[in-house]
Amino acid sequence: METKINILDYLDYRSYLKDYIEFVKLENPSFSMRAFAAKIQCNPGQFNRILNGERNLTSSLIIEICTVLKFSRKEKRYFELLTAYNHSKKQSEREYNFGQMQSFRKANIKEISADQYQLYSHWYNVVLRELLSIYKCTDLSESECRKIGKMMIPQVSHSEISSAIKLLMALGVLEKNKDGTIGSADAFTASGEAIPQVITNRFLLEFTDLAQRAVDAIPRDQRRLSTLTFSVSQVGYKKISERIDEFRRELLAMVDADDGVLDKVYHLNLHLFPVSKGRVNE
Prior knowledge:
This protein has helices at residues 13-27, 33-39, 44-51, 59-68, 73-87, 91-105, 111-119, 123-131, 142-151, 158-170, 197-217, 234-257, and strands at residues 174-176, 182-184. The chain is mostly helical.
């Protein structure tokens, strides 16, 4: 059984399997999820739960799928890494598996995903993009990059600044202005749903670490850190989440409408997460 759907284009094996089944159904209307489950010797109910994310693939099923789909050695190894990546619970495990997968995907990965991966690889990339809308950078000399690095909190080396500027220019995030300075190419850069969660998670963890450092490194009158602990229902949680999304959009609109003199780059962390388990009925 062969397919034109390329496993190397996927970051979720469940999405791949669903697309594969739908693809085959186009050519063979009698084909179904149950038929595929039978081919890999899996109970249809169990396989349906796997596709819905309620269960994970077992080692034996991974082998069966690779055999039925006639994966090449490269595709088989990628599928093994993909399942490990999707099953990983720890960020460190997800990062390791994602990194291994990237070496297989280089020839197939969409450019936007590769670009986003590089853009969000270090916290100072997005800070640098905003900083150069304030500071007029004219060249990539060591002295200039060192000066920019010292403006970062915490300080970044001149070599890292130089590499970051070159990367951002290659990605089209920064550009050479008519006056010879290097500045941002557009108004905002936001992480979207298309970016793999492993990338955004690492990015968020880096800024969470910076927030912890800010407690001691930044004077109180120059920062705003606060916490709020409360109990709420799932309905209330959903409303709060929606309100946070609205607030982010309002905040971006305020920044866009700011006609004052830009003098500093800020970062805002918004975290909403449970600090207790659900109520257990006695």
